[in-house]
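Below is how a single chain appears once it has passed through the pipeline. First comes the sequence as given, then the structure the pipeline wrote out for it. We keep one example in the README because the format questions we get most often are answered faster by looking than by reading.
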Amino acid sequence: MIALLDAASAGWFTERGEVVSRAEARAALAGYLPGDENDPGRTALVENGATLATEHVRLIGHFTQPVYRGTALFFNATDSPEAEAAFWAPYVDGDVRAYDIHATHIGLTSPEPAAEICAVIDRFLEA
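Resulting structure:
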């Protein structure tokens, strides 16, 4: 079993020829992250995140997504509707089971959503 936390496959990026500039990534993160825009810690997070996002999209264009053999549990962050379980169908030789989690993409690792995700995984492993 593999757990996918609201993620798009590499193929999703490469099929669209996605390119993300630092300015685009910076604007997206600055608009998405809570907090005071004058907070130096938040500013550093936005800058570092913009660098990571830009490099991630650049590097993933050179990656060939392998096929996973088994069941994939896809956890959909309902407050960030960009990713979909259907993106993974070509890359999973098995079931792709989708679970809606009331959270943003980044918020999936917060205590309540993480507990809900862990409960689903636990039920799967116990079955």
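The radius of gyration is 16 Å.

See the next section for the split statistics.
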